[in-house]
Design goal:
The protein has 1 helix and 10 strands; from the N terminus they run ββββββαββββ. It is globular.
């Protein structure tokens, strides 16, 4: 077995606005835009800027594929770009349920974020591969992630 560890570096919550493009040949295209959010943790604190979002596709097999770009601003003024892909699974009938607007109250998400910054106090983020464990609160249009550095 390979040697590794996970280190919790921060958590964040983002409020989202939703834009449903609709059914396409590859699935339902849904865009989620960040409107606000907070970043809190042992390694950094700040807020999510109201830019970026998730250009999401819900495949016909009920699996959602994330494509996220967003920006954090730390309490000391650093700008940090995050990009990540990830997945969630609404079940075999999830595509049809989504079209009928029948969503579960919570959806589990797994992502692999990367971080990019020029701020000298946070350049260590540029070297990490992270793992994010998330959950969407569908009633509140809010997502929360716990982010871990893979060491």
């Amino acid at each position: 077995m390979l040697d590794y560890s996970l280190e919790h570096i921060f958590s964040y919550t983002a409020s989202l606005s939703i834009e449903v493009i609709g059914p396409l040949p590859e699935g339902v295209r849904v865009n989620y835009y960040v409107t606000a959010g907070t970043v809190e943790g042992p390694k950094l604190n700040g807020k999510m800027l109201p830019v970026g979002g998730d250009w999401n596709i819900l495949r016909m097999d009920g699996v959602g594929i994330l494509d996220v770009r967003a920006t954090f601003e730390t309490d000391d003024g650093a700008l940090i770009l995050t990009t990540y892909s990830g997945v969630y699974d609404l079940g075999k009938d999830g595509y049809k349920k989504f079209l009928r607007q029948e969503l579960p109250a919570a959806i589990q998400i797994r992502v692999v974020p990367r971080y990019y910054t020029a701020h000298p106090g946070y350049e260590w983020l540029n070297r990490l591969q992270c793992l994010g464990i998330g959950q969407i609160d569908t009633a509140r249009s809010e997502v929360r992630y716990e982010v871990y550095a893979v060491r």
